[in-house]
């Protein structure tokens, strides 16, 4: 029987993939490594909320991103879409966990979690596209947080599909 009871393997796989996608989305959401630029001795990296620059003394100083220095509407759009994706993916994991461990007979919770996974994945992908198409963003400078967000988005969509068929 195990920890998941009599749940179908596709449901278990969808739940585990949703958790992995959430962790990747959390990492991409919180870390300042969406873009990395090295110009001479200056090393800088940017996230959704902070930009960090290396100093001549060898330390790194970070500051909140000021909207005036970036494409404000598109950057704010990326922040909004990634925030929504993060919250909705968290809701999906909670819904499916409740269905798997507490209310085993309420299949609607799993279906709602599946829809949340797909919607979160779509929002995250749109946010990534908006970020990558901003003026001044070169694809060769995109870094691991950006990639984690793409992986989380695709994982969320696949997780939603697995939960629907499970």
UniProtKB/TrEMBL annotation:
GO cellular component: plasma membrane
Name of one Pfam family that matches: PMP22_Claudin
Main location as per UniProt: membrane
Bilayer topology term: Multi-pass membrane protein
Superkingdom classification of source: Eukaryota
Keyword match Transit peptide: no
TM stretches of this protein: 12-35, 83-102, 114-132, 144-165
UniProt-annotated location(s): Membrane
UniProt keyword terms in alphabetical order: Membrane, Transmembrane, Transmembrane helix
Protein name: Uncharacterized protein
UniProt source species: Mytilus galloprovincialis
